[in-house]
Structures are given as C-alpha cells and as structure tokens.
Amino acid sequence: LRCAGMAAAEADTAEGLRRWDSGATEEAARCFRLGAATGEFIPALLALRTLFMGHTHLRLVPDDPSPDQLLAAVDRAKRQDGDSGKESEARNAAERFIDGLLADPSCSASCHLLIGLWMRLVTKNYGEAVKHFRIAANAGHYFAMNNLGVSYHLGEGVPVDYGRAAELYQRAAASGHIAAMFNLGLLCEKGDGMPLDLKQAAELYRRAADAGDDDAMCALGVLYERGEGVPRDIQIAAELYQKAADVGNKYAMCNVGVLLQRGEALPQDLPRAACLFRKAADSGYAPAVYNLAVLYDNGEGVEKNTTEAFRLYQQASDAGHAGATFNLAVLYDRGEGGVQQDLQRAAQLYQRAADSGNQDAIYNLANLFDRGEGVEQDQKRAAVLYQKVADGGDLDAMRVLEIFGY
Q: Can you state the angle between helices 250-262 and 270-281, rounded to 10 degrees?
C-alpha cells in the first residue's frame, strides 16, 4: 500500500531518482509527476522541471505544466510560512528529503543534481550548488553538465566563465539535452565564450525549437524579426512567437502582443494585445507590464486609466525597466496618474532612466537642470546632457544647443 500525503511524494521522488540514474527518463518523469501532483513537494517539482527542460518530449502537453509553471510552483512553495499545518508539513518534508540525500554516503549522480537544484533555486547557496553539480557532471550526468554550465554562464557560485559554460553546454547538447542547445545558442548569439555566429545561433535555436523548446522558438523568432542569422521574415517570426505563446511562454506572449499592437504580420487587435500583455505580466515579465501600462495610459485596447498605468509603470520600474521609469517620471513631472506633481521625484526618476541610457530621460533631465525645476539650476550640466542626446541625433537637443549657444 502507498503511504499518504508528503510521505507518498517522498517515495515517488526517491523512486524517480533511481529511475533517472538508470537512464529510464520516461519512468523517472512518471514518478516525479506523481510526487509533484500536490504542487507542494519542492524536490519533485525541481526534478520534473529539469527533466522537461532537457527532454521536451517527456512533457504531455497540455496535461503537464510548463517549466515556467513548475518554477512558479516552487516559488509559491518556498514562500509558505507554516501558517497552516499542511504548509509546514510540505516544507519540512522537502527539507527532510534533501537532508536525507546529503547524509547518504552512496548519494548518486541524480541525487547530487537534485541537491544542487535545491541549493541554487531554494536556499540560494550557489557555491554548494556548484559543488553538487560538478560531482554529478563528472559522473557523466548531462543534465548536471547543463546546470553547471548555467552557473558559469551567470557567475553563480563561480566567476563568470563563458568558455567553460560553452564547453559544458556542448557536452550536454551532444547527449540531446534541449535546454543546453538553447543555452549554447545564447552564447553564439552574443559571442560569449565562442565566436559570434548568428547563423549557428539560429541553427541551435532551430534544433531546440523543433524538439519543442518554447524559449528557443521565441529566440529564433526574434532572429527572424531582426533578420539576424536568417533572412528577415516577420511572418515566420509571428508563427514562432504564436507557437511558443500557445504553451504559455511569457516572452512570446509579449512579442505576439507587440505585433498585434502594431498590426505587423497580424491584423491590429489592441484588446487581444492587452490580454496577452496581461498574461505575460502576471508572470512578472517587466516588458509586458510596461506595454500593458502604455495601453492603459493611452486608452488603447482597454479603458483609459492613468491610475492603473501609474501602478504598472511603478511595477515595471521596480523590475528595472528604463522605459517604465521614464514614463513614471513623466507622470510625476505633469502631476498625472493619480499623483501630485513632484518635480524633485521626477528628476530622480529621469536620472535613473538616463543612467540606463534612455535618451528621452536624458533630454527631460537636461530641461529640468536648464530651468532649475526639481533640481538646483545648472546650465553647464544641462548643456552636457543636451549634447549627449544631440550626439545621438536628437534634433530638439541640437536646436536647444544652437538657440541658447550652449
């Protein structure tokens, strides 16, 4: 007889690890699926997500959650504070399970991989995560090779080393790991750790996309939209974005929304664009939050609501979106969006956006220094800022410099 509750999840996950070590990934996925069924047992959620990222065919769409959905479930489980007995049991069971793996002198490669995932994604102990990824990778576990590559790629627990990341991704990709193909494509696209090669990046994205990786579909779509590494074809880009959006990819949903907003490759449909931006924004994707804010600000596809626009600009700005920070500054500058005019706050926000390279923010900040509004008047600094924007081709800044002789 199967034990109940968390004990069942622990037993299913332990059996999944044994199947994974034996190379029976489909059986491992079945076990992890059972262990993750409650949406609370973090080790099963982590293992299932990792399997799905490496072998997309193991995901039985639409019955199985996406890797993003599994990661969101992990985040929810991490935030459980034990207010109810059920929540406390779930977190305690997860910690007990990982402690058991750590105490096992015969800990297998898959067990080390899972410990590394726990350390990286739950406790944020990146150094320990690397140690366990390395043990599993040295044992030939190509899922661990990909995760160790990510550590070197992002500089988590080790110094950034794109060359080492590329080597690990290549080894994992050679074994058929789909996410490793995508990650290798990222390095090729940027020229990090290997020669910049957009055609090779496109080919890697295509291989991963053909295997069902939605991030790769989106990345390949971006290359088609820009005409980088492939002939520019906005229609193919739209098809790739839509395919990825259909399985819940937040980046793709945002990109489809942009095409609908512009009426490019797809008929203009602002209400549908707003719907897609909202879905992607619900996943915390800052560009989608910003795009939705713009629609509320302008009353496009949704009823005009500057207060909601302000709230969304604030959310996107807090996530580091320079365009949102600029638009937030404009609302403070004008006293719109349900806030009183506050030129000092506007100047601070313009400065933040300017520091991120936003040209409009630099120009508006120059205006404030020129007039002494929200900041102490400093026309020399204003001139420097106007010149910076003029050097980028801004005609208004050129006229100001010419008229006032700055």
A: 160
| Terminal C-alpha separation, the chain | 84
For residues 41 and 94, is the Cβ–Cβ distance under 8 A? yes
d(CA 239, CA 386): 42
Report d(CA 368, CA 243) in Å as an integer: 46
Rounded to two decimals, the pTM is 0.86
Contacts of 381 (CB under 8 A, 6+ apart): 366, 369
* Residue 127: how many other CB atoms lie within 10 Å: 11
Q: From CA 144, how far away is CA 152, in angstroms rounded?
A: 12
- pLDDT, averaged per 10 consecutive residues of the chain (406 residues), comes to 67 96 94 89 95 82 74 80 56 92 95 97 96 97 97 98 98 95 97 96 97 95 98 98 94 98 97 98 95 97 94 96 96 90 96 95 95 95 94 92 79
Radius of gyration of the chain (CA): 25
The span from the CA of 318 to the CA of 356, in Å, is: 13
CA atoms of 377 and 371, how far apart (whole Å): 6
Q: Say which residues have a Cβ less than 8 Å from residue 49's Cβ, sequence separation at least 6.
A: 67, 70, 71, 74
Q: In the numeric block, which tokens belong to residue 223? A: 């290359």
C-beta of residue 271 within 8 angstroms of C-beta of residue 301: yes
Rounded (5°) CA angle 186-188-189: 65
- Helix intervals (H) in 191-249: 198-210, 214-226, 234-245
